[in-house]
Amino acid sequence: MSPSKSRTDALMAGDELSSAAQRERRKRIVDATIALASKGGFDAVQMRAVADRADVALGTLYRYFPSKVHLLVSSLAVELERAQEKMDRTTVPGDSPYERVLFVLGRITRGLQRNPHLTEAMTRAFTFADASAGAEIDRVSLLMESMFTKAMSDDAPTEEQKAIARVIGDVWLSNLVAWVTRRATATDVANRLELTVRLLLK
Amino acid sequence: MSPSKSRTDALMAGDELSSAAQRERRKRIVDATIALASKGGFDAVQMRAVADRADVALGTLYRYFPSKVHLLVSSLAVELERAQEKMDRTTVPGDSPYERVLFVLGRITRGLQRNPHLTEAMTRAFTFADASAGAEIDRVSLLMESMFTKAMSDDAPTEEQKAIARVIGDVWLSNLVAWVTRRATATDVANRLELTVRLLLK
DNA sequence: GCCGGAAATAGAACACGTTCTATAAACTTC
DNA sequence: GAAGTTTATAGAACGTGTTCTATTTCCGGC
């Protein structure tokens, strides 16, 4: 089914690229993706345009990322990691898990809403991903989960906390999608998230 | 943006087609869609193949459903309505909302899992839909919400119950997608749903 | 029955994701 | 530093969703 799997996976993992030139190419590709997505959303991330902008050949792009969905989900992971790092450098205010989770949620949500096109591109790729992008999806899911468990407590999360974090993640994503597709306003999203977290943590 | 909107909407609404021939065409199209999706999932629902199988021209197909996503989401609505009707004829067992919701959830989930390809096609279309399919999406969302609120109580749902139903719907969909993309087993899904409903209703 | 406009048809055409081919450049290893 | 291998390049080619065109069929009002 996928003859060159191991090589491709190695390239996708990203941390372990043989040469500096390759790490650079990869970065240029992700940057181009984010730039195009920020400007025009999912549809504007056209593989030929990404290749052009990143100054690589189309074939090279496909060697690094086996599909548009992989590309966008990997970029989402990159963005979430950035957000996570920023969050780690912040002291999250609030006395209860409820307050702290809401703070984190609000912060990230507003961050994403500041760049609607990018958010649209990434959430659509994320939810459209098929089995072949399972690894990337799991990576993002774990990032999200840990984001919320960290907000609940500094200690290692309990199973229940993980479950709560997953539920919050699901609701969060679904509301982000609703916002992106104009079926919900930013206020709707904030209200629903607040309500959800209340149901789960109060 | 969409010059022929009103006409298209009329056709899409489906209940109000001018002639019997048109209602028939529409039904043939949805049937063909479901048949193809059942056999090979999202990718097998090719517009030319749907048109062929429904015995309509490609242009006609597009007159009735402006995109593949509209087509699949409308089919999902049809299927959910069927499930809802079946459920309405059933007396849902269980003394608490918790038990009753779990029953409904388990029933529908197993129903969908009996036809994995169809489920894959529909959930992917649903989550990939963009703003232009907002109406269809809302229709399906409402169906889902009412499914769960009905399980909670026979009376008109409170705001809190609606909120809970929405959260359950979000988690349900997300787990269905995880199952469809092989990131979760049927058991995983059942466990997570149970856990979620417990958190919300116990 | 006939006419005019709407709807349906067959099929070409186009756009973009993806794959393939042939060639060139960049590396490894000796 | 030359030979062989891997990686990158340019661009053609292909598949499928979507749109367009020209023609034909259908349907409601006369």
UniProtKB/TrEMBL annotation, chains A, B:
Residue ranges of DNA binding: 46-65
Pfam families documented for this protein: TetR_C_20, TetR_N
Alphabetized Gene3D superfamilies for the sequence: Tetracycline Repressor, domain 2 (1.10.357.10)
SUPFAM superfamilies from the UniProt entry: Homeodomain-like
Residues annotated as transmembrane: none
Keyword DNA-binding: yes
PROSITE patterns cross-referenced by the UniProt entry: HTH_TETR_2
GO MF, one example: transcription cis-regulatory region binding
Signal peptide range: none
Start and end residues of each HTH tetR-type domain: 23-83
Keyword vocabulary terms for this entry: DNA-binding
PANTHER family: HTH-TYPE TRANSCRIPTIONAL REGULATOR RUTR (PTHR30055), HTH-TYPE TRANSCRIPTIONAL REPRESSOR KSTR (PTHR30055:SF242)
Protein name: Transcriptional regulator, TetR family
Organism: Lentzea flaviverrucosa
